[in-house]
Amino acid sequence: MTQQIETSPTEQKRKTASGTTIRWAGVGALVIALLALGVVPRLVRQREALAAVSESPVTHPVVTVVHPQIGEPTSALLLPGNIEPLYTASIYARTEGYIDRRNVDIGSRVKAGQVLAVISSPEVDQQLLQARATLAQSEAALQQAKATLEQAKANAELTRLTKERDLPLGEQHAISQQIVDEAVQAHNARVADVAAAEANITAAQANVTANHANVGRLLQLQSFEQVAAPFDGVITARNVERGDLVTTGSATAGKPLFGIAQSGTLRIQVDVPQSQAVNIQDGQKASIEVKERLGREYTGTVVRSASSLDNAARTMLTEVQVDNRDGSLLPGMYAQVKFTLAQERNSLIIPTSSLVIDRSGMHVVTVQNHQKIHFVPVVIGRDMGTQVEILSGIQDSDALVASPSDLLHEGQDIQVR
Question: Model confidence over 203-212: pLDDT tens digits?
């Protein structure tokens, strides 16, 4: 029979601790080996790089230089704008009635004075007939007043002759004084009748004038039964159909009958920045580009400007008009307006990569005598994307570092590639 040997608890704990120590020692050795594999090659490469640098004959930074270009005598100013019709109008009814006939629709090209629709307004027609009848009555009354005046004048003349005949006879006592007095009073009465007849004529003439004015007013209302185009253009809106009831209205009373726009000449309003506002003059030409009309360039003319700047945007509102008699442009299109402006200053053009902007400001890095770095502050003008305009600070003969590194410093020796 095999005898089983029992191990005391103290011995078991000693064996367990010994195994743990061995395992940790193995892990530490593995970590040290891995660090050696990663660090040692890196140290070797760094030592080799330092040795290559120390043995190399070139110890200065190598840079590429460029020279500034003289700016063009003219510059282009490109501004966005919306194409709008020269004139637009909303046409409302000026008389009440029903649409008897509609002659145009959306897109119809019309001439000034062309009848767009006819409104049937029988009330106005009846009022006009009545006004004409009243005018005829007043004219007849005027003629009657004139006849009365003539009769009054004839009676006054007769009484005058009687008075002039009776006065000498009365002085000679050939007739009684009563007869003389009756002749004088009769003549005075007839003279008063003449004055009254003249006043009646004045009143009758005023009545005729008033009736003429009333007839003219109704004739004007009747003319409004024919809705006419105010100018040459294109119908852009039509809100009525035959049989619709329309009333006199305005912009606050409802929809207009028609909308019309003049598209033979179009206008574009652009906001010119303050820096170029003084260079924009009336009569100046501008090129207009529309993306939907690729390959075609339109020429517009500056017709007016606000002659003042907007306080908020610091821009000047400018209007450019363009001929559109061929109808190739549509109101509402988006366009680019390009102005060619004369340069009033000498400028240089450099690549944007040559410009350095840091906390000390804007400057370029120049190369003096082909070996030393010198930082020069500059004043920039227009930003043209890959190029920038320099107004002052450098000359066209200066050599500039094409793409200066942040490691370059003032007076540093370099080598020009």
Answer: 999 999 999 9
